[in-house]
């Protein structure tokens, strides 16, 4: 079997499995308990928070451990909007966001009367100037992703952050596809909220991060006073340890991993250069994701044939798997009538993929599409 759906989820590394197993067998106390078992658990939790904060170049008190990217996105968007609606009820986002952002914004609109401006790509891209032009006096929040999960396209986060320095609107960034791939320092980028998910960088599912600047926002979960009183619930210590180890490994080997994935993408495009295809990813896209289409070849049929041959790829977000809906990202880029919606697939690499695996994938695609 060959796995090329790393934008959906990534396998745990041996090191992550090892540290999680050690934590399971040696530390089971509640971090909020005052006895020795609790103190040992609390120390591990503090150590993990400090290590994550160092990678983000921030204060540990600004790191909140969550259940994943969806919870982090919901907490940042709902929490800030509902707590600060007296400042305005206008929010800016884009039409290519993950559904955990889009559906959250729809909820705020339908239930609380917020007005949402969804920016569409211009010539395939989102530009900071679009944010500038959409800002109003009553805009309180701008929410954009760092890297698109379906195309790998990188949004101009630094430029948007600079624009918002002179405005009351706070900046939320869904960095689920970015964290672990390249350095992400929220304060340097003027980001107020940042979401990340462990299973996108070889950590465990069910564990994530919310970076939150010193702002007032409502909590979604009420009960205890965990996570600086922002998220009630006993911490998932085993998952947090796995997340931390995965992030440390990515941080330590970041440049080597990035160069390896760039090489994988180069081999992939070189091997397929002889057959008719087009790319939906921009030239500046993160190399980990390639959205590619083959004219007059149905993507569902191609996926099924690849799966039967032992190759795992996808058509887009795993969160919409099993539905017949076309990609909302490609629809925003090309329109609802574009043939690309029926022809495009997503190949997503990680540093665990090998050159031989990529060549085998290309060989199989050429056998199928070249018939």
TrEMBL record:
Q: Name one Pfam family in it.
A: Aminotran_5
Gene3D superfamilies for this protein? 1.10.260.50, Aspartate Aminotransferase, domain 1, Type I PLP-dependent aspartate aminotransferase-like (Major domain)
Annotated ranges, domain Aminotransferase class V = 3-361
Tree of life domain: Bacteria
The protein's required cofactor(s) are namely: pyridoxal 5'-phosphate
Q: Which GO terms describe its molecular function?
A: cysteine desulfurase activity; iron-sulfur cluster binding; metal ion binding; transaminase activity
Q: Does the keyword DNA damage apply?
A: no
Return the EC number.
2.8.1.7
Instruction: Give me the reactions it catalyses.
Output: (sulfur carrier)-H + L-cysteine = (sulfur carrier)-SH + L-alanine
Q: Which UniProt keywords apply?
A: Aminotransferase, Iron, Iron-sulfur, Metal-binding, Pyridoxal phosphate, Transferase
List the InterPro entries hit by this protein, alphabetically. Aminotrans_V_dom, Aminotrans_V_PyrdxlP_BS, Cysteine_dSase, PyrdxlP-dep_Trfase, PyrdxlP-dep_Trfase_major, PyrdxlP-dep_Trfase_small
Q: Which PANTHER family match?
A: CYSTEINE DESULFURASE (PTHR11601:SF34), CYSTEINE DESULFURYLASE FAMILY MEMBER (PTHR11601)
What's this protein's family per the entry?
A: Belongs to the class-V pyridoxal-phosphate-dependent aminotransferase family. NifS/IscS subfamily.
Protein name stated in the entry: cysteine desulfurase
Species classification: Bacteria, Bacillati, Bacillota, Bacilli, Lactobacillales
């Amino acid at each position: 079997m060959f796995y090329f759906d790393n934008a959906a989820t990534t396998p745990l590394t041996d090191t992550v499995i090892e540290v999680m197993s050690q934590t399971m067998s040696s530390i089971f106390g509640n971090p909020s308990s005052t006895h020795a078992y609790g103190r040992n658990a609390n120390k591990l939790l503090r150590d993990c928070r400090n290590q994550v904060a160092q990678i983000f170049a921030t204060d540990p008190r600004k790191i909140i451990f969550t259940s994943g990217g969806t919870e982090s996105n919901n907490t940042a968007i709902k929490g800030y909007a509902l707590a600060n609606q007296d400042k305005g009820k206008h929010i800016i986002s884009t039409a290519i966001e993950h559904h955990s952002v889009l559906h959250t914004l729809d909820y705020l609109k339908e239930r609380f009367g917020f007005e949402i401006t969804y920016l569409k790509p211009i010539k395939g891209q989102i530009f900071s100037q679009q944010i500038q032009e959409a800002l109003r006096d009553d805009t309180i929040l701008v929410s954009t992703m760092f890297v698109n999960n379906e195309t790998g396209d990188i949004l101009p986060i630094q430029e948007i952050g600079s624009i918002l320095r002179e405005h009351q609107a706070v900046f939320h960034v869904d960095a689920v596809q970015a964290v672990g791939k390249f350095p992400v320092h929220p304060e340097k980028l003027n980001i107020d909220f940042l979401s990340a998910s462990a299973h996108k960088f070889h950590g465990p599912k069910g564990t994530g991060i919310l970076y939150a600047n010193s702002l007032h926002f409502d909590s979604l979960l009420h009960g205890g006073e965990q996570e600086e009183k922002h998220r009630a619930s006993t911490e998932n210590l085993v998952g947090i340890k796995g997340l931390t180890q995965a992030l440390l490994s990515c941080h330590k080997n970041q440049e080597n991993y990035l160069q390896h994935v760039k090489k994988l993408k180069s081999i992939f495009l070189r091997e397929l250069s002889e057959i008719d295809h087009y790319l939906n990813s921009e030239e500046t896209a993160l190399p980990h994701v390639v959205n590619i289409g083959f004219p007059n070849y149905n993507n569902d049929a191609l996926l099924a044939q690849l799966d039967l041959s032992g190759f795992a790829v996808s058509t887009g977000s795993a969160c919409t798997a099993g539905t017949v809906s076309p990609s909302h990202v490609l629809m925003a880029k090309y329109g609802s009538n574009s043939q690309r919606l029926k022809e495009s697939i997503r190949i997503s690499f990680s540093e665990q993929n090998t050159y031989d695996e990529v060549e085998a994938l290309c060989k199989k695609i050429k056998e199928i599409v070249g018939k």
